[in-house]
Design brief:
InterPro entries (chains A, B, C, D, E, F, G, H, I, J): Dimeric_a/b-barrel (IPR011008), MLI_dom (IPR026029), Muconolactone_d_Isoase (IPR003464)
Catalytic activity (chains A, B, C, D, E, F, G, H, I, J): (S)-muconolactone = (4,5-dihydro-5-oxofuran-2-yl)-acetate
Oligomer: homodecamer
Protein name (chains A, B, C, D, E, F, G, H, I, J): Muconolactone Delta-isomerase
Structural class of chain A: alpha+beta
Number of helices of chain A: 2
Largest interface: A-B, 27 and 27 residues
Distance between the termini of chain A: 17 Å
Helix content of chain A: 25-40%
Strand content of chain A: 25-35%
CATH architecture of chain A: 2-Layer Sandwich
Subunit structure (chains A, B, C, D, E, F, G, H, I, J): Homodecamer.
Keywords (chains A, B, C, D, E, F, G, H, I, J): Aromatic hydrocarbons catabolism, Isomerase
Largest sheet of chain A: 4 strands, antiparallel
CATH class of chain A: Alpha Beta
Order of helices and strands of chain A: EHEEHE
Strand order of the largest sheet of chain A: 2-3-1-4
Chain lengths: 91, 91, 91, 91, 91, 91, 91, 91, 91, 91
Amino acid sequence: MLYYVAMQINIPETLDAERVETIKAAERSRAIEIQETGKWPHLWRVVGQYANVSIFDVESNDELHQLLSSLPLFPYMSIQVTPLSRHPAAI
Amino acid sequence: MLYYVAMQINIPETLDAERVETIKAAERSRAIEIQETGKWPHLWRVVGQYANVSIFDVESNDELHQLLSSLPLFPYMSIQVTPLSRHPAAI
Amino acid sequence: MLYYVAMQINIPETLDAERVETIKAAERSRAIEIQETGKWPHLWRVVGQYANVSIFDVESNDELHQLLSSLPLFPYMSIQVTPLSRHPAAI
Amino acid sequence: MLYYVAMQINIPETLDAERVETIKAAERSRAIEIQETGKWPHLWRVVGQYANVSIFDVESNDELHQLLSSLPLFPYMSIQVTPLSRHPAAI
Amino acid sequence: MLYYVAMQINIPETLDAERVETIKAAERSRAIEIQETGKWPHLWRVVGQYANVSIFDVESNDELHQLLSSLPLFPYMSIQVTPLSRHPAAI
Amino acid sequence: MLYYVAMQINIPETLDAERVETIKAAERSRAIEIQETGKWPHLWRVVGQYANVSIFDVESNDELHQLLSSLPLFPYMSIQVTPLSRHPAAI
Amino acid sequence: MLYYVAMQINIPETLDAERVETIKAAERSRAIEIQETGKWPHLWRVVGQYANVSIFDVESNDELHQLLSSLPLFPYMSIQVTPLSRHPAAI
Amino acid sequence: MLYYVAMQINIPETLDAERVETIKAAERSRAIEIQETGKWPHLWRVVGQYANVSIFDVESNDELHQLLSSLPLFPYMSIQVTPLSRHPAAI
Amino acid sequence: MLYYVAMQINIPETLDAERVETIKAAERSRAIEIQETGKWPHLWRVVGQYANVSIFDVESNDELHQLLSSLPLFPYMSIQVTPLSRHPAAI
Amino acid sequence: MLYYVAMQINIPETLDAERVETIKAAERSRAIEIQETGKWPHLWRVVGQYANVSIFDVESNDELHQLLSSLPLFPYMSIQVTPLSRHPAAI
């Protein structure tokens, strides 16, 4: 079951620089880990923004929320989720 | 080169019903035709809306505009285009 | 699997009055039919608006889109779908 | 009398981490306490957001405001309240 | 129980002029009728707009929706309803 | 001369807690003082928000700005002012 | 007493062309008439739009609404009114 | 003197198809005519939209409004004008 | 050449109180200085807001930017500039 | 291949003043460096704002993102990218 997910990252300036680096490294590891399960088949950078456009393929709404909230950058992201269904003209 | 494209269809009520059906059939044919070239790798329906979420893979901005404006429903669509680039954590 | 669905109805003034009544009656029948399956557990009117707030309980995104697009008023509705998951503090 | 209530939580980064945990624990307790009175019949998490979608069932506007403002996270929430009434097609 | 209600009137140009006059006269009568019950204590015109700002005093959400939807201009109005409660500093 | 005034209060988290209490007490006193002059005939709390909906009755735009800017919370409020006039159907 | 008034004109395409010309001529006459009273001291065109930016100098909110609603294009305008007061640094 | 101008074209469906073609041809001629004067140095199509992004180089605000309002599609365009000045880091 | 300029002031709470007073005094002096040149013919306070509505009369876009960016509060203002031209019905 | 790029700069007040100056100087150098390659043919200041309007001419979406994210002010900018194509009436 597919979902379009748009993530915008907003790290507050007041956050400690070292902690930011630690979180970003953890984010990267976790993102790769989820992708390797096949549940995050597409991940693209939005040109000119600290944001991404993603497609998730999961069993349920609950599973999607568990995956998204497991991301180390989750507290600093604004996330929009759009459920997708099969398009009648898709080949 | 990838682009995220969101298309919202708004067919005016005043349009003749038969003409609408003709345009929709032509749209379907043209959508399949473009997908078969490999330039429109993903096409999904947004749940609850007469709208789609798409990924296009083209050589240039010009090519993308030519493809989109060749769609029979183009005059009745509101389209947002977001250029994508490779994400550093994508596998 | 639950979804919050907000439907706003906008019937164009140019639509024939009799056809409007036919569509509304069909909408009412179809709404009752879906509710009786248990897949549309909550349906409320928004005070002061020709709009509703609904909760759907379905197996998948595809099933939700099929139900929503089967509504006779679907072409005249603006629909927003929000996927829900279990809240950790819900009893 | 039913109300649709959407709560978005925004805890400022500058808040002390320990105090945040204390507030969250108190929030959880108070949320359960209100639910047990039957006045907060539905509480769902919005997928991908630190936000919830709720239905409240109270005697009056005043009672709803008292309940909402009694939540420990109230100062850090953006809340939208929509009054609901019976839908003519609800079964 | 008080509610702040903002009504914006948008009568489509395609509506027959005579019918518009009939509806406006009926709206005026119904508005006076409701005010005389004490349930619509305040009704003001927004300067420069075909819109009003109102306060309603009713027993329930259902009663408010019945009153608003009984207005002859209801199909041509965009209405926003905000529930009010007692302010701690109000005298 | 009447004005609809919507005030939304946003006190920054970085403000000293004691100073906040002092300002709120002063705000309360000043709000009561203005109401007693008859120039602030209505003051209601918006349900679920740290915000109010008010009606002011003053001699001029200048007088309204002097009253609003005399409020101790003025620097922390987002205020919208809408001039009102007599509604032709008001009784 | 001064007000900033922004008027955006939207004449529906379905309106008879001759009637449009009649209304525009009447608008022009009425606009000049009001300006000659001194109550509409400034009237400017917004570059690239069928819109104007105006300053009105009137005795009351009621008078402003009477002037604005007397404009022949009033039914086809979206108008925003902002009350102004003396600026402490104005010379 | 430079201005950034964004033009969005919205031709109503109710407009006669032949008249639309006449207007579009006239628009094209007039656009070329203005470009040849050097006052419209840049004109680009926005990908996926019936819209353009333009730079105008004119003597004054008045001249810009005269040029824009001389376009045959002017009544059907939504235009945003942004005045530009020299950037300190431009070479 | 006239421009409508709307300035909204947002001074961050974290700024030192004394420095704020110094900047405000400098702002006042600079505002008077510019007004005395005749290039800032109108300056009004927006009722209920720390904001102003202004008309500037300058030779060019560059001159307007130089004037606005010379204001001591410039770094703390959100400014919208709208170019104006002569209105055909202005007397 | 051309893109319209709008950059809005928002430097947080909490950032050290000296570091801000260092970043701005680096930004200026990098901006000049990119312009000299011919890939950033136009760079204008938006009048009254700490913002710019730019045209980039690059080989691909990836190249554009690399250029934009190489700007020292990138973490403090809100950037909107609009892909452009040739306009049929451009000379």
